[in-house]
Amino acid sequence: MRKIGVVTGSRAEFGLLRSLLKSIRQEGLELQLYATGAHLSQAHGYTLSEIEKSAFQVHAKVDSKLESDSALDITKSMGHMVIGFAEALSKSKPDILVVLGDRYEILAAAQAALIAQIPIAHLHGGEVTEMAWDDAIRHSLTKMSHLHFVAAECYRKRVIQMGEAPERVFNVGAIGLDEILDSNFMPQADLEKSLAISIQKPFFLVTYHPVTLDEKESEQGLESLLKSLVDIGRGTWLFSYPNADGGGALLRDKIDAFVKAHPKNACAFSNLGRDRYLSAMKFADAVVGNSSSGLLEAPAFKIPTLNIGSRQKGRLRASSVIDCDASQTSVLAALKKAMSSVFRAQLQNTENPFGNGGVGQKIAKVLSKVDLSTLKAKPFYDLP
Fold it and tell me: pTM, whole model, 2 decimals?
């Protein structure tokens, strides 16, 4: 039986991968799930428990040993993970290792697989986020990988431009859409009970991550958002904590202080989980912050996305996305636009540029049929 290893390092990533994990099993392949990063961190909700509650068994745990979000500790953590993945892959010997995205945990896993001569399949390559170190990591993963599953045709062309053979690059769409199109969302009453909140209008789902190449903008954008919410003065503001990138702890502290000061309107969770997150998105009046979910997934619900600052600069956008800079004037104006009846009336015509789902099945079929003997040799493809 062909063994397919899959790496997951965060709550959001595991949620995106679930349809692929199911499809790998349906194709009769052996699934090896490797958990690392925030999954094993108490500070980030210890989301390994979310995996364990699902129908998937963790094959190996690779502790990141992350002590803080400083540059030094993140770099040391990457070293620990390279060692951990080298040991895990040496024992398990998957035929292919699947990785998603652009995080440093994923880069550590890919380094170990590359040296172990295990072919790598990479999801969401070819994208651009100019103001985050994710950009360099994502493109590095592309050059380390042997199969590529991208979210749009322009990304497919970019991966080929980087020297990858066209027959190894598949435009399958954004995998996060699978569960949106197939999901049974929680009723609003159940969601409110689960979160211990009463949803009032306007209901904003907020996820704001560090801007890793611009610490000043990172803080300014969040502060502008918090001040703008106070100016709006009504509704429910549901925060999902920032990720484990550098500067994330400072943003979490600011969010905690804000929630404490505005308990009637604001609440924050380190781990909403995929089901609650998508259910909250379904009922939200807008998705707010700088997370990729606002660009990739929110358009499927035909709701506004307020995208703050430069973190997602370079990514495709649906017509439902409102971009603004990190100033309070710009953020407040964008929030008001998102709530306006004129803008909201246009949303039914929104088309998501990232496809229509079914991504997990498409990827699993390729993984089941690809000739493994042809993958290790990887010539550079020159454009005509």
Answer: 0.84
